[in-house]
Amino acid sequence: MKTIYKLILKSYIGPMFATFFIVIFILMMNFVWRYIDDLVGKGLDAAVIIELIMYATVNMIQMGLPLAVLLATIMTMGNLGENYELLAMKSAGMSLLKIVRPLVFVVLLISIGSFFIINNLAPYSNKKMFSIIHDIQRQNQALEFQDGLFFNGIDNMSIRVEHQNPESKLLTGVLIYDNRSSGGNMTTTIADSGYIRLSEDKRYLLVTLFNGSTYEHTRGSQWYTKSSLRRHTFERQDGQIPMTGFDFERSDENLFSGSSQTLNINELQHNIDSLEMAVNRTTTMAYNPLLRDQIFIKDPDAISPPDSIIVDRSEKVYAKYLLDSVPTLSTRQKQKVYSNARQSAISARNSFSFDESTSKEALNQLYRNKNEWHRKLALPVSIFIFFLVGAPLGAIIRKGGLGTPIVISVIFFVIYYIISMSGEKMAKEGTWSSLLGMWISSIVLFPLAVYLTNKATNDSALLDFDWYLGKYKVCKDWVVAKLPQRWQDKINKK
Fold it and tell me: How far apart are CA 43 and CA 101, in angstroms?
């Protein structure tokens, strides 16, 4: 028995590691493609790129593990079935559940380990990753010139060079548009050659130009003042321009700790409790003035007397008027009553709108935290469910290698991903509860896993059309038997 279990584990571990790294590589390529515009042309150190990829990889594990487990399980069971090893084990009296017993323990360990990664490592890595991405997006493009093209990586400046010597870095045919002046003046510099480079601390742009002219277009302080153009020729001109954004500066990662993706399950629970109190408080703040001022209340029992309106709570002008008494008032008194009522309604509406927006924001944060809380539990469970789907499916199809298992795994994973994203979207909008939205994919796949396990245990063909036809006829006969006799006669005649 131990020998058989060693054989099964050996057959599973290899494909598991291989498929896991393949899936992580594919997901990482998708991540790099997503942020390719932010990474290219920034002159980033290799250490920064490696650090970003390392933290992103930790975040990819939670998505890669379910697919890797499903693919590895189908491949393992398919190889055993294709080589008749699975048949030999069953002939020796071993059931399918007994055959996959060692794999069950392995997948359970993987699920538990994934929860540790999702709950402990992923929040820390997400915080680091968000910080690095923010710093990269904030950094300006590297100072690199292309022949005949304008470089616009410096605010309010455009630089064009005809040619750059790749060895000496000498620029020829330099054209610089400088619009940094606050008075609206623009300076145009043309030079035969020169050097433009950043200082070692990347705080200054060092400009050295040879044999050129500077044209300064000046205008007065008033819009109607005539502008003037001044020209200055030079043989050599040195300049130093203060620069910001070229040096890669790291932000404090604690600034990004407020996101739900950077919190563990205990911190999320604390946030959920606080946000529920905040939502209740802001909702009460929004509706209390309406209830207190008796504005927009449709329940007559809530108003005493029901036909009264409050004119002035300070009671300095008018205390209270009955609705039937308003027509008897003078024109001036009517105007004061109507004006006071209108101002009260406007004030209540404005206060309600502000408090309502605050309540909605707190509610959205509550939904995000609840979704993340359930995600940390649902993903490890989904890994085990994918195993329950893959083991009987591999035993049924009896196909090893990469071809058929990859196709089947991708189909199941796409279905899982679509259902999961749809449920999460509904949970974010508050249409569904977080419990249903984040667990809907597992709820859908679990009956399928039970069905496939039953088919594989009984050695039933998955695509046995005669079996499905028999079940259809049984269901049809049962439905027809419940119908009235005249409908049964019509159906039988057909």
Answer: 52
Q: Is the dihedral of CA 428, 433, 435, 441 positive or negative?
A: negative
Count of C-beta atoms within a 10 Å radius of residue 373: 23
Q: Find how far residue 145's CA is from the centre of its chain.
A: 36
Place of tokens 């020169």: 194
Is the bond preceding 305 in cis, omega lying within 30 degrees of 0? yes
Give the per-residue pLDDT at 93. Answer: 79
The residue written with tokens 């002008």 in the block is 317
Instruction: Give the pLDDT band of residue 313 (cuts 50, 70, 90).
Output: very low
State the pLDDT confidence band at 440, using cuts at 50, 70 and 90.
Answer: very high
Tens of pLDDT, residue by residue over 381-411, are 999 999 988 888 888 877 766 677 778 888 8
Token pair of 226 as six digits? 């005539």
- Both tokens assigned to 8: 């099964």
Give the phi and the psi of residue 214 in degrees, each rounded to 5: -120, 125
Angle of CA points 70, 74, 76, to nearest 5° = 115
pLDDT above 90 coverage of the chain, percent: 9
Q: 247, 140 in Cβ contact below 8 A?
A: no
Say what the pLDDT of residue 314 is: 47
User: Going by C-beta distance under 8 Å and a sequence separation of 6 or more, which residues neighbour residue 152?
Assistant: 158
Distance CA 211, CA 232 (A): 11
Write b or e for each residue in 19-35: b if 16 or more Cβ atoms lie within 10 A of its Cβ, otherwise e: bbebbbeebeeebeeee
**Mean confidence (pLDDT) of the chain:** 77
Q: Which of 12-26, 119-133, 240-254 has the least mean pLDDT?
A: 240-254
Report yes or no: 84 and 91 within 8 Å, Cβ to Cβ.
no
Question: With the CA atoms of 342, 343, 344 and 345 taken in that order, what torsion angle do they form, in degrees rounded to the nearest 10?
Answer: 50
